[in-house]
Design brief:
Blueprint lengths: L3 E4 L7 H6 L7 H15 L5 E4 L8 H8 L5 E5 L5 H4 L5 E5 L1 E7 L7 E7 L14 E4 L14 E3 L10 E2 H9 L13
Parallel strand pairs: 1-2, 2-3, 3-4, 6-7, 7-8
Antiparallel strand pairs: 1-9, 5-6
Length: 187
């Protein structure tokens, strides 16, 4: 059975991101290899991966070699560094600016967990008062998490360079202190 994963901000091939984000790698080759290994350690060939932008900055050939080594069916939410990815559109199931998904979850009152996916953090989003989650990237772990909001940075810099499964995201959301802002029926 396939699983669902979320991640962001790999910046494959981007030498300067090591310095900009204080990544613990000696060079871009080491960074790429560690992130490819951690991706494939968790993600199988038929698993679905929602990547929330800034996939990589590399030559078209180098980017293609990297992305072809990654397991899974990859959906891409566009970030601010997607030239390489847009040049390899065929590797992605789709590429969008923004997306909302519904995941079957028997623990939810209506059996569905809604998630808003966007490269950038939002203060409010559709359904936030009803328990809809928001996952984002871009901030490289530098944006303080808000315990009372059902959102967080899914980027690799905030998660030891690993993607997170739906169940891992769910555990993080359950640990938050969010409460409904008003009583209503789930949409």
């Amino acid at each position: 059975m396939s699983k669902i994963f979320f991640t962001s901000d790999h910046h494959f091939g981007h030498t300067n991101i090591i310095r900009f984000s204080n990544r613990p790698f000696q060079n871009v080759e080491e960074m790429n290899e560690v992130m490819i290994a951690r991706w494939n350690e968790k993600i199988g060939p038929t698993d679905e991966v929602y990547h929330l932008g800034d996939f990589g900055i590399a030559t078209p050939e180098d980017f293609q070699q990297i992305v072809n080594r990654l397991n899974g069916i990859i959906y891409l939410i566009v970030g601010n560094h997607e030239g390489s990815a847009l040049g390899n559109r065929k590797r992605f199931k789709w590429i969008k600016e923004y997306h909302e998904i519904k995941i079957k979850d028997d623990e939810r009152e209506n059996g569905v967990q809604r998630i808003v996916l966007f490269h950038y953090a939002m203060r409010v989003w559709r359904g936030d008062s009803r328990g809809t989650w928001h996952l984002y990237g871009h901030s490289h772990g530098n944006l303080p998490d808000l315990a009372h909001r059902l959102s967080f940075d899914i980027g690799v810099d905030a998660h030891d360079f690993y993607p997170l499964s739906y169940d891992e995201v769910k555990a993080i959301m359950k640990a938050k202190s969010w409460t409904r802002s008003f009583e209503d029926e789930e949409a």
